[in-house]
Each structure stands twice: as structure tokens, then as C-alpha cells.
Amino acid sequence: MIVAEAKSLGKIKEMLASHKRVLVSGCNTCMAVCFAGGEKEAAVLAASLRMAFKIDGVDIEIKEMSVQRQCEKEFTEPLKGGAADFDAVLSLGCGAGVNALADMLTDTIVYPGVDTKFIGITESEGVWASRCSACGECILDQTAGICPINRCAKNILHGPCGGSQGGSCEISRDIPCVWQLIIDRMKRLGIMDKLGGIRPLKDWSAGLNPSKVTKDERDK
Amino acid sequence: MRTQYPTNLKVLKVPCSGRVDMVHILSAFEEGADGVVVAGCLEGECHYKDGNIKAKERVVKIKRRLVEIGLEAERLEMYNLSATMAASFVEMASEMTERVKGLGPNPLKDRV
């Protein structure tokens, strides 16, 4: 899932202060799961903004309307009509959601209400961790399913650097050296031989933007 | 036991203080409440395991949000008391009433 964090109320107020009618739009998939911008967060933010602007004496109407997924037209269609009466939309979707709304709402300004952080996993209740950098060419088959591109500070691909100390990365003792994790797992699985080969240079262009994936009828 | 508590307090019943969400409290302030009290069960005695602990953490978070909004954090407080502690309930109601009187009316009320 995509993980994000809500922007501060102060920052959002700055963005919206010059508008008269703002629609806060939550996204009920990833953003709801990471408590950054689902329907509930949209309601809380809209109420907070209404009160904050009222106290500041700024006359601005703020309403909310959430959709299941801002990154798919099928779900964002209701927003088209919903946003018609507003001069700005505050999207609580991830960066992709903000872009999708900006594409659809050609004459309305769309602002981001969250900072999109990463593609990650839920480690425990309220804790998410980055696990994929969407590099475009997956090498997890060579690293026992643990990604050095995402989890190594240096993105190195051929084993740990000299900064790997006692299983931790040199940038923080709290961050495990991902190469230590990879090697421990490979040993456990009896596939250490996979590390021996010489690999061609990684094609970083595979993950460069702008990128698009297209599938025709036969691939679906 | 027959006791009286300040009549300005409106009681809203929820199954557990853990049910009280940020949006409920913000709505109360938005609609002009001068103060809000979350009354949960005694710590360690939650019928739903840890609803009152969750409520306590939520109240801390909402206080921070109130300050960001421009309201005083003191307008919101959490108390822990059991259903049999009438005297504590009266004490809580009186204490919050006095506190809120000291803070003055909710500034949003004039602008509603």
C-alpha cells in the first residue's frame, strides 16, 4: 500500500487562505488504512479548518466528499460534479490521487493535503515501513525477497558495505543492515550460491518517470 | 445518593469512552460547546479491555489539534470514574464548569 502522513494544519491553511469554497476529498483505500486521508480524516480536517478559519476571521466555506479511490476514474467521477461549486479541492489522496484529480478537474485548483512517503507494509498497529521503491525491474529473486534498493541507504547490490556493524546500518543502530538480513535469510534457505554470480549493471532507467504500463485485451 | 451537578453540562452517552472519536469532539466545539469532558471508566477497569486508555491518548491528540485551531487545550479534559462514583462526577462537572467559565465562551460561538 501507499503510505502518507497528513500535512500540518498550518501548512494547509496557508494553501487555502485565498479561496472562498474548498472541497476536502478523502481517499478511502490506502490513505484510510494509514490514517492519513480517509473519510474520517477528511471530516476531522474539514471541521478543523472551518473552526481555524472562523477564529482567524477568514470567510471560507469548507465541505468534504470522499471517494473509494482517487487514482481511478471509475471512483472519482462523482467528484467531477461535486467539485463544480468549489474553487479549490484539497485532495487527501496520495500523490497519484492528487494528479488524477488535477487531470480530471481541468478548471479547479487541486492541493495536496498529505505528504506521500512510500510503498510499504504495516509493521504493527500504527507503524508502517517502506519496502518497495518501484524501481521498475524487480531483483527480489536474487536477494531472497528482501530489497536492498529500498532498504539499503546506499542502494548497493552486491553485499554489505563497511558500515554494516553488528547487524545494523551505520546511519542508525535502529536500522538493520539489509544485506545482513539478506545473507542471514539466504543461509537459512540454503541459497547462498545466488550471491556468487556477477550481475549486469542495474538498469535504473526502468523505473524512471514518466512511465506507463499498457495492457491490451489479450493480456487482461 | 442525591447530589446536584451544574445544569450547564449536557451528558451524551456512549457505550465506552473508546467510542469517542476526534470528529465527535471537534463537532461539539464547532457547534459552540465551551468545553468537553470525556468521562471514562477507571484505568484497568475498562469493560472493553482498553477503550479508556485509547480515549486518553486521543484526548491528548485532540488537545494539540485544538491549539492548532486556535482554541485553548484546557477546554477539553478526560476524567476517569466509575458509574458508582457520584461525588466524583459532581466534582468533575463543577471543576470543568469553573475552568470553562474562567476561559470564557467558545470564540466560535460569536461567529456561528
Task: Give an overview of the whole structure.
The complex is a heterodimer of chains A (220) and B (112). Chain A has helices spanning 9-16, 30-33, 39-56, 73-82, 95-104, 148-151, 178-189; strands spanning 2-6, 21-25, 61-64, 88-91, 109-112, 114-124, 127-132, 168-169, 172-176. Chain A has 220 residues and is of the alpha/beta class. A four-stranded parallel sheet of chain A has the order 3-2-4-5. A three-stranded antiparallel sheet of chain A has the order 1-6-7. Chain B has a two-stranded parallel ribbon with strand order 1-2. The chains are: A alpha/beta (220), B mainly alpha (112). The A-B interface holds A 8-10, 40, 43-44, 47-48, 50-52, 54-57 and B 21-23, 26-27, 29-30, 65, 68-71, 107-108, 111.
Task: Write a compact overview of the structure shown.
Chain A is an alpha/beta fold and 220 residues long. Chain A contains 7 helices and 9 strands, in the order E-H-E-H-H-E-H-E-H-E-E-E-H-E-E-H.
Oligomer: heterodimer
The number of helical segments of chain B is 4
CA gyration radius of chain A, whole angstroms: 22 Å
Instruction: Compute the average pLDDT of chain A.
Output: 94
Instruction: Specify Rg of chain B, calculated over alpha carbons.
Output: 14 Å
Query: What's the helical proportion of residues of chain A?
Result: 25-40%
Taken as a percent bin, the fraction of beta residues of chain B is 5-15%
Question: Which keywords apply here?
Answer:
heterodimer, A: 220 residues, alpha/beta, 3-stranded antiparallel sheet, 7 helices, 30% helix, B: 112 residues, mainly alpha, two-stranded parallel ribbon, 4 helices, 2 strands, globular
